[in-house]
Design brief:
The complex is a heterodimer of chains A (355) and B (179).
Chain A: H1 2-7, H2 12-15, E1 25-34, H3 47-58, H4 61-68, E2 72-76, H5 82-90, E3 106-110, E4 115-119, E5 125-132, H6 136-151, E6 158-159, E7 163-164, E8 176-183, H7 185-189, H8 193-202, E9 205-209, E10 221-226, H9 234-262, H10 264-280, H11 286-301, H12 312-319, H13 322-329, H14 336-354
Antiparallel strand pairs in A: 1-5, 1-8, 2-3, 3-4, 4-5, 6-7, 8-10, 9-10
Helix pairs in contact in A: 4-6, 5-13, 9-10, 10-11, 11-12
Chain B: E1 13-19, E2 22-28, H1 30-38, H2 62-67, H3 70-76, H4 88-94, H5 102-105, H6 107-118, H7 134-153, H8 157-178
Antiparallel strand pairs in B: 1-2
Helix pairs in contact in B: 7-8
Chain lengths: 355, 179
């Protein structure tokens, strides 16, 4: 189970093709922060509290299986190697901060990795549910189902005025962070993205790159999420976020058309060149791979390049991650050249298989 | 993880900067981050860079300086949460509370803070149904009271009467559960 999660480039949940067959909204994620009534918060580093939460979490497996008919397992972080932990971070299954603090930290995860509960992170539990494409409501329903199942056995800290109690007041209330990963090459290439980001921020929602902030995100991937957790209900927040995302998708489509319209040949040239590089490169670093993959996916979406199977893009984006590749190659002391060569091979192979 | 700068304190601020597609990472403790920021060595915007999991930028005296007049701070200086032992000052320093009880102990300070960062201080979402369903009923009552107000103002007395009966019904159910 753990090996499967660590070794497969794509979590199973991402393999279900997105409902609209598009590659603008890549994935949706909802996370709920929950704390128990008694134990102190993890930042207090109180051993009995950490232990208590850990043992509650270990007892959850059958409860969760009953709730959504998935198989669950519990992974203790201190039993993993550094590389393995980094892979979990790259897969967004645990947070970077969590990869460093080990005893009593664990991950309860479903066999398709569509549900992952981080244990003893900043909050006692962080319940995450993931869906491919733009499916925030389904992700929320799934997370909420898990939340209810846990709550039927244990009392969560809840305050009449503030709602669900969290260690940091920025999460208090619903404890919910809903986010959508978007691939926005046309908005980025036409320079429209910065203005768009500003207006999204003004609406109280946040935009980040795939790995951190920056106006030009790697691979033109952006994460849009809600900031506020108090005042609006979960459903209102999700509805609003969905509207915003639909607005962004409409803009992206519009600018894809305008790219085509303004200089079709120039665009085709760029996209075919990127395709050529991926098809023939013998070494490619993660950054370049992401850039070219983004171009190639755009080319496929526009019908300029021959299309690959639905989840190839996501799969290859995973392959651009260094720790995942290390694990894949199967040794810890992989050199940069080895990794770049391996990456180039995996991508090339994919394009050959397709042809 | 230790702070990259002083190598002593625990790093609570994690920054990823992407400049010309070059990615650099910095892990700092609150005091080094604040010093570096004052010296202009890191951009003030860097502090907004945080991962979706946490909001480490709310550290230092950020909350304190933003929300409270001095006399309030003085008077609250000594109060401790009986469950975890934290003071409100400790929260200001860490940006994190120590336990669930802190929210009741420091409710007076948290209210304006939460209002400021969340734009609201009234929860309006999913309610746990554990045990007697007491929370759920209380919320329903609160909601019905609002509706009742609206009905009365709109002179919809039949609707108001219906709402009043429903509130009474819920309240008596709550009483039973509490006994």
């Amino acid at each position: 189970m753990l090996d499967h999660i660590l070794d497969s480039p794509l979590s199973n949940w991402l393999k279900d093709s997105s409902p609209n067959g598009e590659h603008i909204a890549i994935s949706s994620r909802v996370r709920l922060a929950r704390n128990f009534e008694g134990p102190l918060f993890t930042n207090k580093n109180d051993e009995p509290s950490l232990q208590e939460v850990d043992s509650i979490a270990r007892g959850l497996i059958s409860t969760l299986t009953k709730a959504d008919n998935r198989e669950y397992s519990s992974i203790s972080l201190d039993k993993l190697s550094d590389t393995e932990r980094s892979v979990l971070v790259e897969k967004h299954l645990i947070s970077p901060a969590m990869a460093e603090k080990l005893p009593y930290r664990s991950l309860v995860v479903s066999n398709d990795a569509s549900v992952a509960v981080m244990v003893n992170e900043e909050d006692h539990l962080r319940i995450q549910a993931m869906e491919p494409g733009l499916q925030l409501m389904n992700a929320f329903k799934h997370a909420s189902l898990i939340d209810d199942a846990i709550e039927s056995k244990h009392v969560f800290a809840f305050h009449e005025q503030f709602g669900y109690i969290t260690a940091c007041p920025t999460n208090v209330g619903t404890g919910m962070r809903a986010s959508v990963m978007l691939h926005l090459p046309a908005l980025a290439l036409t320079g429209r993205i910065n203005r768009l980001i500003r207006s999204i921020l003004q609406l109280g929602y946040s935009v980040r790159g795939l790995y951190g902030e920056g106006s030009e995100a790697l691979g033109h991937m952006y994460q849009v999420s809600n900031q506020r957790t108090l005042g609006d209900s979960e459903l209102d927040t999700i509805e609003q976020l969905e509207k915003i995302v639909e607005g962004i998708i409409a803009e992206e489509r519009k600018y894809r058309q305008s790219l085509l319209h303004n200089d079709r040949e120039g665009l085709e040239d760029r996209l075919w060149r990127s395709y050529g590089i991926l098809q023939y490169a013998r070494r490619i670093d993660g950054k370049e791979a992401l850039e070219k993959l983004s171009d190639v996916q755009l080319g496929m979406d526009l019908g300029i390049l021959p299309a690959w199977s639905d989840h190839s893009f996501n799969e290859l984006v995973a392959v651009t991650r260094p720790n995942f590749l290390n694990k894949y190659i199967g040794k810890d002391d992989v050199t940069t050249n080895e990794r770049d060569a391996y990456r180039a091979t995996v991508i090339r192979q994919k394009l050959v298989d397709m042809a | 993880m230790k702070c990259n700068h002083c190598k002593q304190n625990e790093a609570t601020i994690h920054m990823t900067n992407i400049v010309n597609n070059e990615k650099t990472e910095q892990h700092l403790c609150a005091s080094c981050a604040s010093d570096l920021q004052k010296d202009g060595k890191i951009s003030p915007f860097s502090s907004f860079v945080n991962d979706m999991w946490d909001s480490n930028f709310f550290t230092n005296d950020f909350f304190k300086n933003m929300v409270y007049p001095n006399h309030v701070l003085e008077s609250q200086h000594q109060k401790r949460c009986p469950h975890c032992g934290n003071t409100y000052d400790e929260f200001n320093r860490l940006g994190r509370f120590g336990c669930a009880q802190c929210y009741s102990v420091f409710q007076d300070q948290i209210e304006p803070l939460v209002q400021r960062i969340q734009g609201s201080k009234e929860y309006n979402g999913k309610v746990p149904s554990k045990g007697s369903n007491a929370f759920k009923k209380q919320y329903e009552i609160k909601q019905l009271r609002k509706d009742l107000e609206v009905a009365i103002q709109g002179e919809q007395f039949e609707e108001a009467a219906r709402l009043r009966d429903r509130i009474k019904e819920l309240e008596s159910a709550l009483d039973c559960n509490e006994n």
